Input
Amino acid sequence: QVQLVESGGDLVQAGGSLRLSCAASGIRTDRHTMAWYRQVPGKQRELVASITNSERTTYAHFVQGRFTIERYDAKDMIYLHMFSLKPEDTAVYYCNARDQSNDHWGQGTQVTVSS
Output
């Protein structure tokens, strides 16, 4: 059974930092493109950052230069380092693992940034 478990979400002041973690089980992360998405109520889930198994990264324009995605395949872990947080970064953040056949999601972790 595939499980992606996110952690690290918290309430933080604007300008602060957080590190989100995603622990994968039931899959090998080195065989997947890993990504972080986020969603706020009433809006579509949107891509924040992704990293392929060849370490190629993609970032949404609204986090470029502030967030860094990192993978640690030896532990089947994915991280999202978040800096200079803004109130508009408030959302539920989801971990995603995708290969040619499957698309797996975690349950999400809440990030709230106060102004």
